[in-house]
Specification:
The protein has 328 residues and is an alpha+beta fold. 52% of the residues lie in helices and 20% in strands. Helix 4 packs across helix 6 (162-182).
Length: 328
């Protein structure tokens, strides 16, 4: 060191200063800060040895140690089935279909065109950086595989209808998370969003015709059901009314028959008590009912002694009494 350091005897002091500078560099240069939206991946000679959370930490400075600080709260998006150009505000300005990713075979041997987006974030920064080589490409391939498995087990109509889309998103999200966890990728799947789920462009017109026919069928069925719901209660009401009228007529006939029988019994009992009086009363009542409305005058010749009596306009008098007064 004396030969290398100019000054001869002062070499010891220079060495001490160099050692102090190195020690100071290791003491001060090894501190690093992890922000709240980051995780610190601690490296020593290029090997991952620890993962630290937000705050102030220390590690060997370069070239011995290093720290990677990936953003773990940032939500990343991966598009499958299409590619879009974004503007400065992050909005999609143009969209290009990628058929080799979007065309998927369904369980009933049909093809559906599905575009979807996977939103994900880093769950474990160390696994994310060192267990998989290309995280974004891994997410894309795994998501496409999961979607093909989910859609391939279900029918075409279910995949393209609105009621099936929610289930597709939920099942695909769960399956994709299982795949990434098996890779120990350190990624959390936040959401799977279907952008479109339609038949291929070559058959979409025929599919729309089928959909319109189904809608017409459902409409006619609903109209027929509405007509049945209106006509059946009305018919039931009429039948119930007829039943009630028949029941009332039945009760009326029974009551009248019972009244006639009771009247006959009362006459019969009166006849048993006084046969002559009853017989004469019945005779007079019968003739009264027969001749009560007759328009004839019968004169007994034996009562007057002769058949000639003064003319009395009895029929006209009877009609005059029956007619109401003119001023009423």
């Amino acid at each position: 060191m004396k030969k290398m350091v100019p000054g001869g005897g002062r070499a010891k002091i220079v060495v001490m200063l160099l050692l102090l500078l190195v020690a100071g560099w290791f003491a001060v240069g090894g501190f690093y800060r992890v922000q709240p939206d980051e995780q610190g991946v601690v490296l020593v000679f290029g090997e991952w040895v620890d993962t630290t959370g937000p705050g102030l930490h220390w590690n060997w400075p370069a070239p011995v140690g290093d720290v990677e600080l990936p953003k773990v709260t940032q939500v990343n998006s991966t598009d499958i089935g299409y590619s879009g150009a974004l503007d400065r505000q992050g909005r999609v300005t143009s969209k290009r279909d990628v058929p080799e990713e979007s065309l998927i075979l369904t369980g009933d041997q049909n093809i559906v065109d599905i575009d979807f987006t996977v939103q994900w974030k880093i769950k474990d920064a160390g696994k994310y950086l060192f267990n998989i080589r290309d995280p974004r490409a891994t997410v894309k391939v795994a998501a496409e595989s999961a979607m093909r498995e989910v859609v391939g087990q279900r029918a075409f109509d279910w995949a393209v209808q609105g009621e099936g889309r929610g289930e597709i998103q939920a099942v695909t999200k769960g399956l994709l998370q299982v795949i990434l966890d098996s890779y120990e990728a350190g990624i959390e799947v936040r959401e799977v969003q279907l952008q479109q789920s339609d038949p291929p462009k070559e058959v979409i017109d025929a599919f729309n015709d089928v959909q319109r026919a189904r809608q017409d069928k459902e409409r006619l069925q609903n109209e027929a059901q509405a007509y049945a719901n209106s006509i059946v209660p009305e018919a039931r009401g009429r039948s119930e009314q007829m039943i009630q009228q028949a029941e009332a007529y039945k009760q009326q006939q029974i009551s009248e028959a019972q009244g006639e029988a009771q009247r006959f019994l009362s006459v019969y009992n009166a006849y048993l008590a006084a046969p002559d009086v009853t017989r004469r009363r019945m005779y007079l009542e019968t003739f009264g009912s027969i001749f009560g409305s007759a328009n004839k005058i019968i004169i007994d010749e034996g009562a007057s002694g002769s058949g000639v009596v003064p003319y009395l306009p009895l029929p006209e008098l009877q009609r005059g009494q029956a007619a109401p007064p003119a001023n009423q």
